Amino acid sequence: MKTAELHTLTGAYALDAVSGDEREEFEKHLRACSFCAQEVAELRATAARLGQAVSEQPPAELRERVLRRIGEVRQESPGGRVAEEAASVRAPRGRPRSWHIWALAACVAAAGALGGVAVWQHQEAQDARQRSERAQDRAEALARVLSASDAKAVPGAELPGGGSGTVVLSQSQNRAALVVSGMPAPPKGKVYQLWLNDGGRMRPAGLMPPGSGSEAALLEGKLDGASGMGVTVEPDGGSPQPTSEPVMLVDFPA
Amino acid sequence: MDEAAALGSPAVGPVELGDLLVQVARGDQDAFAAMYERVVGPVFGLVRSVLRDPSQSEEVTQEVLVEVWRVAARFDPAKGTAMTWVMTLAHRRAVDRVRSEQSASDRELRAAQLSGSRDYDHVVEQVEARLEREQVRRCLRTLTQIQRQSVTLAYYKGLTYREVAELLSQPLGTVKTRLRDGLIRLRDCLGVQG
């Protein structure tokens, strides 16, 4: 799609009236077009007014259910990382930091040329830095699980769409990882979500990184006596609880 | 319920929704309960408008609110109001649910049913009849017919612009443009700021 055409998509995008592919393409465009980002923000605020206009009270029992549920759901910390992980995993940050300085320098250079865009780009650079730090923390934690002296491999069943998965457990690290090979890509707009099984209750354990058909993913959160793990296909971004049958279910040895 | 009342106690006046969300991001369950009271009506109404089915709407409303709790830290007041943030999340979730449940052929069928059994003005009317806010209703009336139909079908029914184009027998490019200029006209009429 040409840039001019993409630009007219602000309205459809703000109303979630685009297909998954277009959404992706447009979001790429948004990152490079601060004017479009501003327009989308305004049109979303407008759409929200339309939403408020059809306000309707749900049954009163819903409140009880929701309040109970939030007591069981862990929150993301401001960096987007689960708070507990942030506290326990601290890694040296050589490369990301120098990258950050480089990115900042690039933004300052851009500021001269583009004025107002720079602030927004700086935000982007910070987001990228946080993503990169997270990736490094995760890679190190993953390496620790896979190389732990008590690491134990638990083979999973064949995946329905082909490929297979093996869970690696380390009680000393109190963590688990999933190693997959030949796993088919999830359907468009979907992701593979990982879960830890707390005696029948599924606890979210992060998403499989996209494009990871043959690699290892660290399960978010500690084992803390979990009795198994599972993988489901969920809408983009994941779900607070499984919404589909698991494609893989593994019981951990007692 | 009384935690909520305590938070918004008359002595300090009502707490801003955005401030509540900041407290929620720090794990404050009382702030969450207070926020719940403010957003649950708009969230449920919107989800219900898209999904129709009451029990499914309740389920998705619960998912949305739990998601608000989980990712509250992502809310950035610089990028828009708390209500817009919550409603954006709710609409996306409702639309994702509709689209994940319907194969392409089902959706064609749904579009056909929509076009066969009611005319669009009737759909628009139904929606308008539920509109509680006089201002929104008044501003919707300032749109051209195609703008109004396009915007309401896309937003309240969760249709893609392609489906809207089919339903209204309009070229794709026209619907895309009408969604944008219709929303811009609404924005100006409602005095919305980003």
Automatic annotation (TrEMBL), chain A:
Query: Which parts of the chain span the membrane according to its record?
Result: 99-120
Q: Which GO terms describe its biological process?
A: regulation of translation
Q: Which GO terms describe its cellular component?
A: plasma membrane
Q: Which GO terms describe its molecular function?
A: sigma factor antagonist activity
Keywords of this protein's UniProt record, alphabetized? Answer: Cell membrane, Membrane, Transcription, Transcription regulation, Transmembrane, Transmembrane helix
How does it sit in the bilayer? Single-pass membrane protein
Pfam families for this protein: RskA_C, RskA_N
Q: Which domain of life is it from?
A: Bacteria
Cellular compartments annotated: Cell membrane; Membrane
Residues in domain Anti-sigma-K factor RskA N-terminal?
A: 6-48
Question: Has keyword Transmembrane?
Answer: yes
Region: Disordered, residue numbers: 226-254
Primary localization = membrane
InterPro entries from the xrefs?
Answer: Anti-sigma-K/W_factor, Anti_sigma_zinc_sf, RskA_C, RskA_N
Q: Where is the Anti-sigma K factor RskA C-terminal domain?
A: 105-247
The record's annotation in PANTHER family points to: ANTI-SIGMA-K FACTOR RSKA (PTHR37461)
This protein is called Regulator of SigK
**Protein's organism:** Streptomyces qinglanensis
UniProtKB/TrEMBL annotation, chain B:
**Gene3D superfamilies in the record:** 1.10.1740.10, Winged helix-like DNA-binding domain superfamily/Winged helix DNA-binding domain (1.10.10.10)
Which GO terms of the molecular function aspect are on file? DNA binding; sigma factor activity
An example Gene Ontology biological process = DNA-templated transcription initiation
Q: Where is the RNA polymerase sigma-70 region domain?
A: 35-102
Descriptive protein name? RNA polymerase sigma-70 factor, ECF subfamily
**What are the UniProt keywords, alphabetically?**
Sigma factor, Transcription, Transcription regulation
The UniProt entry, under InterPro entries, shows: RNA_pol_sigma-70-like, RNA_pol_sigma-70_dom, RNA_pol_sigma70_r2, RNA_pol_sigma70_r4_t2, RNA_pol_sigma_r2, RNA_pol_sigma_r3/r4-like, WH-like_DNA-bd_sf
Q: One Pfam annotation, family name?
A: Sigma70_r2
State the family named in the UniProt similarity comment for this chain.
Belongs to the sigma-70 factor family. ECF subfamily.
Q: Which domain of life is it from?
A: Bacteria
Please list the residue ranges annotated as the RNA polymerase sigma factor 70 region 4 type domain: 133-186
